[in-house]
Automatic annotation (TrEMBL):
Pfam families: DUF4190 (PF13828). InterPro entries: DUF4190 (IPR025241). The lineage of its organism: Bacteria, Bacillati, Actinomycetota, Actinomycetes, Geodermatophilales. Keywords: Membrane, Transmembrane, Transmembrane helix. The keyword Hydrolase does not apply. Residues 31-100 form the DUF4190 domain. This is Uncharacterized protein DUF4190. Signal peptide: none annotated. It comes from Blastococcus colisei. The chain crosses the membrane at residues 29-48, 54-71, 83-105. Residues 1-24 are annotated as: Disordered. Residues 1-15 have a biased composition (Low complexity).
């Protein structure tokens, strides 16, 4: 018995697999992030005058980055659609706010300048009121210090001070008081005071009070600048309890030409208030 011949075996190649199909992966969102950050910064600075000039530049840069970032995101090649939109919106708002703020700023400056010009114009044409001039003169007279006559006490700090006498040319008196006294650079002036302490604790009148001669040369000459020893020198005045009194002298070295027409004041040596009292010297 014979059998029919068998067909040869067919060989099958393994199936081949091609590359996977689908869209390519999206890239990063660097432009969108930069646009969003710049837009937010510009929006925050857009309210501040002068500085918002910088904000306008930042907003323009943010706008320039946001447009291509949005185009790339819409094409699907990059991420960051929302951030690109945020950058565009904030940049546009910042530019608008900068323009509005600058307009308001310029308008305010123009109004101030106009007000100043109107005020100057009114001042130039305003009539002079004689009554106002008299009132100003009266105020100046009222502010002129009152002069206390010789022998009349006046309150100076914690003391009742009376000017007993003033010697405008006391060179011989000073020379006779102590042989070591030096001649004056100008001319010695001596004041004799009687003081009564009215404070609560105790007082040292020779240190607590100062005599000042106001010369006609517009300069002041204090007893602290006079080192001559006097017959009844203020440095030797005793410490006084409340109600205690003493009489002593101060000296001042004044140029002779500045004495005639000058003024004398007594004031506390240490004081933060204007407690100066003027006394008549003639």
């Amino acid at each position: 018995m014979s059998y029919p011949p068998q067909a040869p075996y067919q060989q099958y190649d393994p199936p081949s697999y091609g590359p996977p199909s689908g869209p390519p992966p999206k890239r990063g969102a660097g432009l969108a992030i930069a646009s969003m950050v710049l837009g937010i910064i510009a929006l925050l600075l857009s309210w501040i005058p002068i500085i918002n000039n910088v904000a306008a530049v930042i907003a323009v840069v943010g706008l320039g980055l946001g447009i291509p970032a949005l185009i790339r995101a819409r094409r699907g090649t990059h991420n960051g659609t929302g951030m690109a939109i945020t950058g565009l919106v904030t940049s546009v708002l910042a530019i608008v706010l900068v323009i509005l703020t600058q307009m308001l700023f310029v308008k305010a400056i123009e109004e101030v300048e106009q007000s100043i010009n109107e005020g100057l114009a009114e001042a130039e044409v305003a009539p002079v009121d004689p009554g106002a001039e008299e009132a100003t003169a009266d105020e100046a007279t009222a502010q002129t210090p009152e002069v206390v006559p010789l022998g009349v006490p006046a309150q100076v700090g914690d003391y009742q001070v009376t000017l007993d006498a003033i010697e405008l040319n006391a060179n011989e008196t000073v020379a006779g008081a102590n042989e070591f006294n030096e001649p004056p650079t100008g001319q010695y002036v001596i004041t004799q005071l009687t003081v009564t302490y009215v404070g609560a604790d105790e007082g040292m009148p020779g240190f607590d009070l100062t005599a000042i001669f106001h010369g006609t040369d517009s300069r002041q000459y204090s007893d602290s600048e006079c080192s001559a020893l006097l017959p009844d020198d203020g440095i030797d005045a005793p410490t006084l309890n409340s109600g205690g009194s003493d009489t002593f002298q101060f000296c001042m070295d004044v140029p002779p030409a500045a004495i005639e027409g000058g003024q004398l004041s007594i004031e506390p040596t240490m004081s933060f208030d204007d407690e100066r009292v003027f006394y008549a010297i003639g």
